[in-house]
Design goal:
The chain contains four helices and six strands. By secondary structure, the chain is an alpha/beta fold. Helix 1 packs parallel to helix 2 (72-84) and helix 3 (135-152) packs across helix 4 (164-174). It is globular and about 50 Å long.
């Protein structure tokens, strides 16, 4: 169902709608913490360039609706796209980053919070998971955001700017895969597009592309 490294263009058929689910660009995170939903985490200089690159790639697309997570990094990633199409940027709380009990801490393997016994109980269940927002809840709210964008842009294209875990969880849900997974294997680079192609109300294709290039999913602060 997936076709890597392609960005689909809308076809003339009025019933075709494409919802591009975009991960935000690189974040300025000098302390290397898991910032989650904390305020004030903006795009880095590289992240700003990535946002402009995606806006350029999508400039010729029939985009009629742009919506983003309320977090600053997502808003900053979405702004160049909305501006390029003369659109007002909308906000949808359903696109927000996943809640995580380790927010504000360092969580790299062998580093920080994961080495402290008092945190180990939070790691007891990787399937729900025990340390944060349930994967199924993430999938359902992301699907609600995508469906709202699809209705808003019916017959055209929409862009939804979100975060790595929510985007990857949505894709696994739509592809019928188990939701728990190894974070090191996520196919969701910085400023990547997971484009959902609909014919009417039916999802007919999922196309993944990396207009701003590849990135390492294991890098803290990405």
């Amino acid at each position: 169902m997936t076709s890597p490294q392609q960005t689909p263009s809308a076809e003339p058929a009025a019933s075709r709608t494409i919802v591009h689910v975009l991960r935000h660009g690189e974040v300025h995170n000098p302390k290397g913490i898991l910032y989650g939903r904390l305020p004030g985490y903006r795009l880095s200089v590289t992240g700003q360039a990535q946002a402009r690159t995606v806006a350029s790639v999508l400039s010729g697309h029939d985009i009629t609706h742009v919506v983003a997570s309320p977090l600053q990094r997502a808003q900053e990633t979405a702004t160049p796209i909305a501006s390029a199409h003369g659109l007002t940027l909308a906000t949808d709380d359903n696109l927000i980053e996943a809640a995580n009990d380790f927010e504000g801490l360092k969580v790299s393997v062998g580093d920080g919070a994961l080495r402290r016994p008092r945190h180990w109980l939070k790691l007891r269940d990787p399937f729900t998971p025990s340390w944060g927002e349930p994967y199924l809840q993430i999938a359902h709210r992301m699907l609600a955001a995508v469906n709202a964008a699809r209705v808003a842009a019916v017959g055209h294209e929409a862009v939804c700017v979100s975060h790595q875990l929510p985007v990857w969880t949505l894709r696994r849900f739509l592809e019928g895969e188990r939701l728990w997974h190894d974070p090191r294997n996520r196919q969701c680079a910085l400023a990547s597009l997971t484009s959902l192609v609909y014919e009417g109300d039916t999802l007919v294709d999922i196309v993944y592309s990396e207009p701003a290039g590849a990135s390492d999913p294991t890098v803290t602060g990405a």
